[in-house]
Amino acid sequence: MQIGFLQRLRSLFQMQTTAEKQRQQLGLAEQPDMLTLIEQAKREWHSSANYFNNVSDPELVDHAIMVRQAAEQKYMYLLKQAKRQGVVAWIPQSLDSPELTGTNEPA
Questions:
Q1: CB count in 10 Å sphere of residue 33
Q2: Would you give the distance in Å from CA 92 to the centre of its chain?
Q3: 66-75: long-range contacts at Cβ-Cβ below 8 A with a sequence spacing of 24 or more?
Q4: What integer pLDDT is reported at residue 87 of this predicted model?
Q5: Are 71 and 41 a contacting pair, CB within 8 Å?
Q6: Residue 68's Cα: distance from chain center in Å?
Q7: Residue-level pLDDT at 40
Q8: Are 101 and 107 in contact (CB under 8 A)?
Q9: How does pLDDT run across 40-60, given as a tens digit for each residue?
Q10: Which of 15, 56, 58, 79 is a good FRET partner for 65, with 20 to 30 A between their CA atoms?
Q11: What is the full DSSP assignment across 30-70?
């Protein structure tokens, strides 16, 4: 069981390394910073939603609402900034791929 976990961990690390190399080749090395911020904001938003859903003290309800709204606004702001900057979360294998052209025919 532990061997399977280690193999999955190793393959995950190799995939991340490959993605980093692809970003560097395309001149996108600065993007992981924005992507990291977006992922962190997403986790904060989910965490604040969980806090809101589980708050039991009536005096904390307003606080939970404000925290959740702030986290959501931060996440949406970062997504807009990333879009303006042209940040991509994935790198297509080919610009002529069917996923991008909308066709099923090979280029």
A1: 10
A2: 16
A3: 71/41, 71/44, 71/45, 71/47, 72/45, 72/48, 74/41, 74/44, 74/45, 75/38, 75/41, 75/42, 75/44, 75/45
A4: 83
A5: yes
A6: 18
A7: 93
A8: yes
A9: 999 999 999 999 999 999 889
A10: 79
A11: THHHHHHHHHHHHHHHHHHHHHHHH---GGGHHHHHHHHHH
Residue-wise pLDDT for 62-93, tens only, equals 999 999 999 999 999 999 999 998 888 776 66
Residue 62 tokens, joined: 């307003």
Tokens (6 digits) for 20? 């980093």
Tell me the average pLDDT across 16-24. Answer: 63
pTM for the model: 0.55
Query: Which residue in this structure is represented by tokens 């990291």?
Result: 36
The two structure tokens encoding residue 69: 């709204």
Length of the chain: 107
Separation CA 86–CA 52 (nearest Å):
33
> Which of 37, 72, 38 minimizes the C-alpha distance to 52?
72
Question: What pLDDT is attached to residue 78?
Answer: 94
Instruction: Tell me the residue type at 4.
Output: G
